[in-house]
Amino acid sequence: MKSMVEMQREVDEYIGQFKTGYFSPLANLARLTEEVGELAREINHTYGEKKKKDSEEANTIKAELGDNLFVLLCLANSMGIDMTESFNETM
């Protein structure tokens, strides 16, 4: 299992291969908002009254949580925030 530090490093290495690097914090926040919406949709399909249409993609809550974590780590990395420290301060 990867630590938060390892996850942040892996995201940084992945983003580092692109010339543009990280999006701005505001753009990352917009992306995170989009991903939270996709997570909400999956939770609604799984636990809510609105079931998925046959034509809709077969995403999962697990996959959407992973997408949210990736974008959250991008946001933190772009602002130089250590998520382990952030989590420890919260707890």
**Structural Rg:** 15 Å
Termini gap: 21 Å
Mean pLDDT: 94
Can you count the beta strands? 0
Biggest beta sheet attributes? none
Low-confidence parts: none
CATH architecture label name of the domain at 23-85: Orthogonal Bundle
The tally of helices reads 4
CATH class of the domain at 23-85: Mainly Alpha
Helix content: 55-70%
Care to describe what's here?
- The protein is mainly alpha-helical.
- It has a domain at 23-85: Helix Hairpins (Orthogonal Bundle), CATH 1.10.287.
- The chain is 68% helix and 0% strand.
- Helix 2 (25-47) packs antiparallel against helix 3 (61-78).
- The radius of gyration is 15 Å and the shape is globular.
- The model has no long low-confidence stretch (mean pLDDT 94).
- Keywords: Hydrolase.
- It comes from Staphylococcus aureus.
- This is Nucleotide pyrophosphohydrolase.
List the helices and strands and how they pair.
Layout: H1 4-16, H2 25-47, H3 61-78, H4 83-90
Helix pairs in contact: 1-3, 2-3
Protein name: Nucleotide pyrophosphohydrolase
Keywords: Hydrolase
Organism: Staphylococcus aureus
Structure characteristics:
globular, mainly alpha, 91 residues, Helix Hairpins, 4 helices, single chain, 68% helix
Summarize this entry quickly:
The protein is 68% helix and 0% strand.
